[in-house]
Amino acid sequence: MATPIRISVEHVTKRFASGAVTVFEALDLAVRDGETLCIVGPSGCGKTTLLRCMHGLATIDDGRIVIDGTEVRAPSRKVAMVFQHFGLMPWKRVRENVAYGLELAGLPKATVQERVAHYIEMVGLRGFESSYPNQLSGGMQQRAGLARALAVEPDILLMDEPFGSLDALTREILQDELLRIYQLAPRTMVFITHSIEEAIAMGDRILVLSARPARVRELFQVDIPRPRTVESVIAHPRFIPLRDHCWRLLRERAA
Amino acid sequence: MTFHRVGVEVDESRAVGVRTSRWRRLRPGDWVVRLGAIAVVLGVWELFGPTLNKLILRPPSDIFRAFFELIANGELQDAMGQSFRELFGGLAVALAVGLVLGVASGRWRFVYNAIDPLVSALYSVPSVALVPLIAVAFRSVGDAPRIATVALFAVFPILINTQQGVRNVDRQLLEVARSFNTSERRLWTDVILPSAMPYVLAGVRLAIGRGLIGMIVAEFFIGLVGLGYLIISYENVFRIDRMFVPVIVVATMGILMMGFVQWLEGRIAPWLKREQ
Q: CATH number for the domain including B264?
């Protein structure tokens, strides 16, 4: 109850194609300080669009989104995003890609170097600083994408299906990495995924959206304690009931 | 060519010659094939050319001899100095104009709409047809009309490729840049220009070929100087062996300059050849 709200989505409406398609309408939700809120929903329901709106990358048609008391209009340096498509610049080496946000923030060179080294180490990319993205596997590219977002030390991390394009094994390894990194320094995170298992493993709460126009089907707590690993989550007795519950919500037609 | 394309659409078919990575690096075996093919052509020419037409198909050994004759009497060096001044002058103008207009029209719809019909029209017209016009416009004074001709021949591939390179910039990367609060200046240096680079360099490669043609055409039509003059004057007196010398010099220039651009690409766009 006492946990402060970091992101507050208030009655937000988003339309596409000059008003013809309503992505979501009068949507309300709140992200609490330090929690990981996972958002799941049928594909095409506007999860990614919602995240882009939270970051100020997309405009909204009605309502407002407030982060720490300030209405979101454009991307803020307090927020960093990890993209499903990794979004690495092919012409920058890993080191330069990770340094990207820090350079744009105008930090002194020494600080940039120090932080880049720190976060490259954290995501397990040491030895690959001078590689170009196309020399790396998908999993390693996303490690770099993660390091780039973490390096700016944002208050809030927005994760747009970050592991969605990776193979199952790599995905699980990176989920564990992210759980470990989160445990080192918990920070507020909004995590979009289409995988129920991933949502349960990563999330403190799960928000289930309905098909378009997206509405909040249900918002519930993941009562599995941290520290977690993917394995410990799957082995937890609450895992199967939570998964079945999620499945039921997603299978039901919105109406 | 259509004149009514909308500014935001991307039409990749107009940007030509962007290479795929499989062909980027030559392997040692490739060189054997390349040199072998040249040797076969020269061999066939040497052996059978004169039997077909003694006057016109002079064997490579004669051309080789003529090459040293033209060096000995200084004609070749003079002509090369003249021609390369025009070529490099014209390519420099084409590069400057092509890059500026290409970037501007790739970025701003107004510029695109303003120049696209003109560019499409001029690119469709055989550039040769415009050479007499250039001669008149520049009153055939000095090297200026020939430099202008080279520039006219070379500018369009650079302009069009640069434009397409700027317009084809990955939208996802633009969003990443916005997400990290980029400035407009950093957007250009981090995202737009590097992503346009392969297109620009492919345009430059095409421009070199067209520029060499423009150089010879200009020397045929305007003033009779340089390598073009050598070709015409020795052709007129049926010294086909000597006529071939400037032709081969031009061909060699083409090979060397394209090779240079490819080398340059490896230096300024190293990420392109590092694929696994």
A: 1.10.3720.10
